[in-house]
Amino acid sequence: MPKVSEQELAARRGAILAAARRAFARHGYEGATVKVLEAETGLSRGAIFHHFRDKEALFLALAEDDAARTAEVVAEAGLVQVMRDLRDKDAGWLGVQLEVRRRLRTDPGFAASWAERQEAITRATAERLERQREAGVVRSDVPVALLVDYLRLVFDGLVSSIASGMPLAHLDGVLDLVEAAVRTPTSVTRID
User: Fold this and answer.
1) Other C-beta atoms within 10 Å of 42: how many?
2) Which of 23, 79, 81, 90 could pair covalently with 40 via S-S, beta carbons 3.0-4.6 A apart?
3) How many structural domains comprise the chain?
4) In terms of domains, do 106 and 150 share one?
5) Do 71 and 62 meet the contact criterion of CB atoms below 8 Å apart?
6) Do 103 and 162 fall within a single domain?
């Protein structure tokens, strides 16, 4: 039997993840049965589960990958940039995000295991806001923890809105408003 290179294994794993993302988006976690995953990937159950222990591990790999990328973007450019990038996300990404949120609400075991990933995003957001505050960019009259909660609520609402098909005609304006809410005011205008 010929030996498969690490690159080929990584490519196969990536292809399985992409197909699984489509399956979870279309059918939800429960509806993405092994048969559905086989049809979506074009692979046998053995080929799929050679790379992932089970369907749960496959879903978690997708969700963990998304959480890690989100934390990277937050650390580099902030949570508002993650929100701006949402317009480029496909239905598969949104489907995984909605499934994660559903499972956080309904599955205590999942919620406990997911806490570490959420904490990484929260920590990256708080650290970036602190750095921006020290640079005089972020307002100092509101605790950073409150700003983090505000940004997370906006992010979650935006994900839900996009996933439900809500039009985003004014997304840039809304996100400019969100960004302005956390920034240090450059001038105060009195309205008499």
Assistant:
1) 10
2) 23
3) 2
4) yes
5) no
6) yes
